[in-house]
Task: structure prediction
Amino acid sequence: MKADQFQAPDYYNLDDLLSDEHKMVRDASREWVKREVSPIIEDAAQKAEFPKQLINGLAEIGAFGPYIPEEYGGAGLDQISYGLIMQEIERGDSGVRSTASVQSSLVMYPIFKYGTEEQKQKYLPKLASGEMIGCFGLTEPDHGSNPGGMTTHFKNEGEHYLLNGAKMWISNAPFADIAVVWAKNEEGRIHGLIVERGMEGFTTPETHNKWSLRASATGELVFNNVKVPKENLMPGKSGLGAPLGCLDSARYGIAWGAIGAAMDCYDTALRYAKEREQFGKPIASFQLQQKKLAEMITEITKAQLLAWRLGVLRNEGRATSAQISMAKRNNVNMAINIAREARQILGGMGITGEYSIMRHMMNLESVITYEGTHDIHLLITGNDITGIPAFQ
Ligand code: TGC
Ligand code: FAD
Result:
C-alpha cells in the first residue's frame, strides 16, 4: 500500500471553531492512525482479520469512552472531541472505528447510563483500558430495522435469569469478553443484560465471507439456556428507548466518522489527479475531473458543518434523536458517493489495495446499513417533520 500522505481538507477554516483541546485530541489521533493503522490496515482487510494489536493504541488515544468521566477510566472529553476521534479513526478504516464506536457508545454508554454503581466499577475501567472488549446485541436474524419485534427473552428463575435466543451481525462478537444484550422479560418488556464470555450456553460464531468491514470481526450471539446472574441486569432504563438511546450516541460518532473516510478518498483522488498524466496533461486539468473534486470538497465541507453544529448541540444537551439521524444519513451517504467518484478518478488503480478508496467504499456499504439503514433514517426525518410514522 502507498505511504500515507494524508492532508486534511479544511476549506472553510473550521479549525477556527475548535478549541486547543479539540485540536490536540484530533492531531494525536491523526498521528496515531498514520503511524499504526495505515501501514497494516490493507493487509488486515485482505486477510479479513481484526488487527487486535490496535487495541492498546485505541485506548491510549481515548477512543474507548472518550466522554465517559475520568473516575470510571474514560477520557472525560466533550462531544466534539469524541467526534473528532471517530473522524480520524475512520479516516484509517471504518472497521477500526466500529470497534471503538461499539466499545464506547454501545457498551460503556449503557453501563454508565443504565448500570448500577457496582457494574460501572466492575466493567468501565477495564473497557476504557482495552483490557476488556464488549459488543452490543440488538439485531436478530428476523428483526433488523424493527428491533422492537425481538424474540430473545429471559425468565426469572429466582436465583438467576434464564436467557434464550440469538443475535446476528454483531460487531466484535467473536472476541468480545462481554455482551450488552437486549432481551424481553416475561411481560415482553425490553431490558439490557450483561452477558460474559464463559457463561454456559453462550456462544459467538463468527460471520465469514464479508466483502465489507473486513478488518472488523462480526458474529452471532447465541443463548441456549444461559444462566445470567441477577446483578447483571442494568436497572436504569427499560423499553426500546433504552437501546435506541445508545444508538443516538453511536450514530453521532458515525456522522463524524464518515467525514474521515470521505476526506481520505478526496485527498487521495486530488493528489492522484494532479500527478497522473493522460493526453500529455495531468488529469486534474480536465473539467470533468475538476467537477468531481469540486463537488467532493463542497459536500465534505457541508458535512463538517453539520457534524460540528450537532456536536455543539450535544454539548449543550439539546440535540434531538432526529437531528442525529439526519447527520448520520447525510454524512454516510456523502461519504459513499465520494468514495465511488474518487475510485473513478483513479481509473484501474482505484480497484487495487495500493490505495485506500475501494476499501473505504466497501466499508461504507455496511456503515450505510448499520445503526439504522439510509431509508430508516429518511423515515425518522419524515416522522419528525410530519408527525406521521411511516414505518409500517
Ligand atoms: P418507536 O415507537 O418509534 O419508539 C419506541 C420507544 O423508543 C423511543 N425512541 C428513542 N429513544 C431514544 N433514542 C432514540 N433514537 C429513539 N427513537 C425512539 C420512543 O420515544 C419510544 O419510547 P416510549 O417511551 O414511547 O416507548 O419505535 P418503533 O418500533 O416504531 O421503531 C422506530 C425505528 C424504526 C426508528 C427504530 O426501531 C430504529 O431506529 N430502527 C433501526 C434499528 C437500528 O438502528 N439498529 C441498530 C443496531 S446496532 C448496530 O447497528 C451497531 S453497528 C456498530 C458498529 O459496528 O459501529
Ligand atoms: P432489514 O431490516 O431486513 O432491511 C432490509 C431493507 O428493507 C433495507 O433497505 C431497509 O431500509 C428496508 N426497510 C426495512 N424496514 C423498512 C420500512 N419500514 N420502510 C422502508 N424500508 C424498510 N447490529 C447490532 O445489534 N449490533 C452490532 O454490533 C451490529 N453490527 C453490524 C455490523 C455489520 C457489518 C452489519 C452489516 C450490521 C450490523 N448490525 C449490528 C446490524 C444492523 O444494525 C442491521 O443490519 C440494520 O439495522 C438493518 O437490519 P437488516 O440487516 O435486518 O435489514
In short: The chain has a mean pLDDT of 98.
